[in-house]
Design goal:
The protein is 42% helix and 25% strand. The chain is of the alpha+beta class. It has a domain of 37 residues. The longest helix is centred in the N-terminal third of the chain and has 14 residues. It is elongated. It starts with a helix and ends in a 5-residue tail after the last helix.
Length: 255
């Protein structure tokens, strides 16, 4: 009933650590069929070994992509853990197709091998990658919301951020930030005129994540201020002309 391509695709998903139930549902084939294929067909190559699970742990080969993905994860990403199954998900606004593509590309480069899917929901797209190794690459994973637990980078993660700080900042802004145009008025020659200027905002409830963002901006020479609203210091603003120019050169708006 099923061609060889379908069989190999199902077995590849199982080899990545996916449960039989989830593969059966996604592929629309029975659990029994998948079990039979695992017995009869020649075993397929497994997902490449995780760089963090080795006897001497290393770092992801593509650290530039990882730095960007780390920013996305700390903003709009999370890991769902189930028995024998873990998947990383980054939620993107549907009106930003470039961001959706960038999130998928970063996942592919940071951890080659696992399958990646896009799930369309009302107003957004979930970019999902299935692998039991995602918790190895993001030790910040844990129960509950990120702002309700400490978020501290591991030493190897901090080294990557130090090597690629702009990619880390870009990931954070692309997840929980924005570039907007503010305006005000000035009196020039006795006449009140409208004045517009660009500005970046980063908003996150976690004190630790905001600290990671502002510490990195400090190292890059970007001036920033806290923009407290309703007594909450959740917003970080970059409005100085020279600093906005730096952000434009290395980050830019979402698209």
């Amino acid at each position: 009933m099923y061609d060889m391509g379908t069989r190999k695709r199902a077995l590849a998903l199982v080899a990545q650590g996916r449960s039989l139930n989830s593969v059966s549902k996604e592929m629309r084939v029975s659990r029994h069929a998948i079990t039979c294929w695992r017995i009869r067909l020649e075993p397929l190559h497994q997902t490449p070994p995780c760089i963090r699970c080795q006897e001497t742990p290393g770092i992801p080969e593509d650290i530039e992509a990882y730095a960007y993905l780390l920013g996305l994860y700390l903003g709009d990403g999370y890991i769902i853990s189930k028995p024998r199954q873990h998947y990383l998900m980054v939620t993107c606004t549907a009106s930003w197709p470039g961001l959706i593509d960038a999130a998928e590309e970063a996942m592919c480069r940071a951890l080659p091998g696992p399958s990646i899917t896009r799930v369309q929901r009302a107003g957004c797209v979930d970019v999902k990658s299935f692998s039991r190794h995602w918790p190895c690459l993001f030790p910040q994973h844990g129960p509950g919301k990120k702002h309700e637990r400490p978020i501290v980078l591991a030493a190897w993660q901090q080294e990557i951020v130090d090597d690629h700080p702009w990619e880390f900042v870009r990931g954070l802004v692309h997840s929980d930030g924005c570039r907007i145009t503010n305006w005000t008025t000035r009196v020039v020659g006795g006449e009140r005129k409208r004045y517009e200027y660009p500005r970046y905002f980063f908003t996150n409830v976690s004190d630790d994540i905001r600290q990671l963002f502002t510490d990195t901006l400090d190292r890059l020479g970007v001036e920033w201020t806290h923009c407290t609203r309703h007594g909450n210091p959740y917003n970080v603003s970059v409005a100085r002309k020279a600093s906005v120019a730096l952000m434009d050169a290395h980050v830019g708006p979402k698209y």
